[in-house]
Amino acid sequence: MTLLGIHYRPVFLLVLVSLGATSSLAAGWNEDIDGDLSGDYQNPTQIALVPGVNTIRATSGAVATTDLEYFRLDLPAQGQIDAIILRVFEAGFDNTAFIGVQEGTSFSFPASEAFVKSAELLGWAHFGTFEGDGVGGDLLPIMGANFGAIGFSGPLTAPSYTFWAQQQGDPVTYELDFIVSSVPEPGTLVAALAAVLGSACRRRR
């Protein structure tokens, strides 16, 4: 396909590459380095996401008490969470953990009220070695489709989300990769395309 004598497809791909370039390793939280994630549903650990791979590494279990993890993820402008990949799951006997999410900057209820307030969850999932697609699988579509919650489909696009994760049995260590992309505003895309087309026209002359 051509436009004004210019091969359009390569030009359009150039625009997409220039607008969609992201870092391969971005941000996140590692409990081994950054400390324990908050166990307070009203005051979750705040983490700013950036385009790319944002990894959360944590250990959860119920030895003396249940180790809860609450973390608030703030998206960049025009950012969205496209996938949540279970990258690592290290467990002993119990190979299943839980994760839930609500839109906003904190959770609306404590873990002890989960059975009566599960309808307030945006989504949830069990994850682990033998849950869903296991290690390497994407939890996002599972969370959006599970019963009893509000539900969602597609990427998460709100400014902030708060996640709650826990393990009721022997401790497990997990890594979740939150894959974030930056979606350009329509005006930005048009302006970028016009600039590239203009440059191509000048080169042809």
What structural category characterises the helix and strand content?
Answer: alpha+beta
- β-sheet strand percentage: 25-35%
* Helical run tally: 5
Assembly annotation: single chain
From the alpha-carbon coordinates, what is the Rg to the nearest angstrom? 21 Å
Distance between the termini: 20 Å
Largest sheet entry? 5 strands, mixed
Q: Unreliable runs, pLDDT <50, ≥5 residues?
A: 1-25, 200-205
Number of strands: 11
The succession of helices and strands, N to C, reads EEHEHEEEEEHEHEEH
User: Helical proportion?
Assistant: 10-25%
Tell me the overall shape: globular
Mean pLDDT: 83
Could you give the order of strands across the largest sheet? 4-6-10-8-9
Describe it for me?
Helix 1 packs across helix 5. Strands 4-6-10-8-9 form a five-stranded mixed sheet. The chain has 205 residues and is of the alpha+beta class.
Descriptive labels:
205 residues, five-stranded mixed β-sheet, four-stranded mixed β-sheet, 5 helices, 11 strands, disordered N terminus, disordered C terminus
